């Protein structure tokens, strides 16, 4: 039987903690004296009120009887309900006209997708824009992980929730307690956010823009405070700095933790990391050659910089824009789609399929060919010198099938709702991979406002499903999940 009281208690704590983040946005609104003070204050009160009610209902919960089902349900409900409460500043302030639009914008933030329905971002007041960036920053590392780090009182449920929210194939525990793992991961995340803020601030950005872009860059989310995104600054310095930090955000945070503690070999010898950076380098050189020899960009340094930036913004699922790459042609669109599917490393802030799964699938395919000539050979899949169990390989194969199926199903639905083929495929891939820009009119300089409300609700669900690694969300929709 589901531990309902524990679920309510956890959700209540999530809401109460989330109120603190919303109050930070309220403080920004006070500083800039915008008209968003009232909607942010009202939204904070509503969120805190529901948090207290939920917590009181579950206060007598048995925290040690929570299992996998409770973990998956809490994570899914947390992302669903926090997006519902998180949309209130947009809707109550009148900055977004419809509930579907406000929910889409907030879910896109929390899932670090970065797709937007806003046609004039700069028209929003500072507090609401800061809240928009905060949703991505929280979603990058995960709200559950943050809560577990702050409040080590969840008993057996903490581990289940951590696994259900954290992206990756397996979850390495470099500390005996899950709360210690969560604290150190968030410590690394904070360090790089502050470092990037300083680097952007000494460039052409003011402090407000530097903080916002540091949060959305480390989260590999891509929300910007400007309509033109990163192109607004027209700065090679900003583009190189952000591209480098998008790569950092795409790297396994656990390995970065080891690297910063002097264990350099764990990161440098990691196969997934080497595959990721190899693909970044190779893709950058291919795209650079394409845009340079096609005469799209004639300056060699600019060709390299824009190619490097587009490759990193796509493979990191960040979605910042410096140029409109749609005129670059179908060849680049194909490269873009591949990068949007593969994405960064497991344990990073990226969405997408994850490079670790690509490594396992590639090695499994090589073994399949070897077995054609040596049918009796025992050929296990090895990553970093360790044998990957058949159970994990099968799970990766299942994930790949569901991942591609979800892209096709979403694209079919969007085409039924009136989208063109190019736009539907690009948007579906973007939503499942949490990348942000799509193709066609929904490319890096477009927005998603023209989709119907029904499509926006479906895309909101798909973005959450992709961010939580598909199994977490889809499993609770199966009848067997609810059986005793």
Written overview of the protein:
The chain has 484 residues and is mainly alpha-helical. The chain has a domain at 4-236. Helices cover 65% and strands 1% of the residues. The protein has 21 helices and 2 strands. It has helices spanning 4-32, 37-57, 68-86, 88-92, 99-110, 126-141, 143-150, 157-165, 178-201, 207-218, 236-249, 253-260, 264-268, 271-293, 300-315, 330-342, 355-373, 390-416, 421-433, 453-467, 471-475; strands at residues 381-383, 386-388. A two-stranded antiparallel sheet has the order 1-2. α9 (178-201) runs antiparallel to α11. The longest helix is centred in the first third of the chain and has 29 residues, at 4-32. The chain is globular. The relative contact order is 0.10. The model is unreliable at 149-157 (pLDDT under 50). It is found in: Cell inner membrane. InterPro entries: Cat_transpt (IPR003445), TrkH (IPR004772). The chain crosses the membrane at residues 12-34, 40-59, 71-92, 141-164, 185-203, 240-259, 275-293, 331-353, 396-416, 457-482.
Short account of what is shown:
This protein is mostly helical and 484 residues long. The chain is built from 21 helices and 2 strands.
List the topology elements.
Layout: H1 4-32, H2 37-57, H3 68-86, H4 88-92, H5 99-110, H6 126-141, H7 143-150, H8 157-165, H9 178-201, H10 207-218, H11 236-249, H12 253-260, H13 264-268, H14 271-293, H15 300-315, H16 330-342, H17 355-373, E1 381-383, E2 386-388, H18 390-416, H19 421-433, H20 453-467, H21 471-475
Antiparallel strand pairs: 1-2
């Amino acid at each position: 039987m589901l531990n309902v009281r524990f679920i309510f208690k956890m959700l209540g704590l999530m809401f109460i903690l989330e109120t603190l983040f919303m109050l930070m946005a309220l403080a920004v609104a006070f500083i800039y004296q915008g008209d968003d003070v009232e909607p942010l204050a009202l939204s904070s009160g509503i969120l805190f009120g529901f948090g207290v009610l939920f917590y009181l209902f579950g206060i007598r919960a048995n925290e040690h009887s929570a299992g996998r089902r409770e973990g998956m349900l809490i994570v899914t409900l947390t992302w669903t309900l926090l997006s519902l409460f998180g949309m209130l500043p947009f809707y109550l302030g009148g900055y977004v006209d419809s509930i579907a639009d406000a929910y889409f914008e907030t879910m896109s933030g929390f899932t670090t997708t970065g797709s937007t329905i806003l046609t004039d971002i700069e028209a929003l007041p500072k507090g609401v824009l800061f809240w928009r960036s905060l949703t991505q920053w929280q979603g990058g590392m995960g709200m559950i992980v943050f809560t577990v780090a702050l409040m080590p009182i969840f008993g057996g449920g903490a581990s289940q929730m951590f696994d259900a929210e954290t992206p990756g194939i397996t979850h390495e525990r470099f500390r005996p307690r899950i709360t210690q793992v969560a604290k150190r991961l968030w410590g690394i995340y904070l360090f790089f956010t502050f470092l990037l803020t300083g680097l952007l601030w000494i460039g052409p950005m003011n402090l407000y823009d530097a903080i916002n872009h540091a949060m959305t860059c480390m989260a590999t989310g891509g929300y910007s405070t400007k309509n033109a995104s990163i192109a607004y600054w027209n700065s090679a310095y900003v583009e190189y700095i952000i591209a480098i930090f998008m790569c950092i955000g795409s790297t396994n945070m656990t390995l970065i933790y080891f690297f910063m503690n002097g264990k350099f070999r764990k990161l440098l010898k990691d196969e997934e990391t080497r595959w990721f950076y190899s693909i970044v380098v190779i893709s950058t050189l291919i795209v650079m050659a394409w845009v340079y020899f096609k005469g799209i960009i004639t300056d060699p340094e600019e060709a390299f910089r824009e190619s490097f930036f587009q490759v990193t913004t796509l493979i990191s699922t960040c979605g910042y824009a410096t140029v409109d790459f749609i005129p670059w042609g179908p060849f680049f669109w194909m490269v873009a789609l591949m990068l949007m599917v593969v994405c960064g490393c497991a344990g990073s802030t990226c969405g997408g399929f994850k490079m670790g799964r690509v490594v396992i699938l590639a090695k499994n395919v090589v073994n399949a060919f070897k077995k054609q000539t040596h049918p009796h050979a025992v050929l296990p899949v090895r990553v970093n010198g360790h044998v990957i169990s058949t159970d994990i390989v099968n799970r990766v194969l299942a994930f790949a099938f569901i991942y591609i199926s979800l892209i096709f199903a979403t694209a079919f639905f969007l085409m039924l709702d009136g989208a063109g083929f190019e736009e539907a495929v690009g948007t579906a891939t973007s939503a499942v991979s949490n990348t942000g820009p799509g193709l066609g009119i929904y490319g890096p300089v477009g927005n998603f406002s023209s989709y119907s409300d029904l499509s926006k609700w479906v895309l909101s669900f798909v973005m959450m499903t992709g961010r939580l690694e598909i199994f977490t969300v889809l499993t609770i929709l199966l009848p067997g999940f609810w059986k005793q």
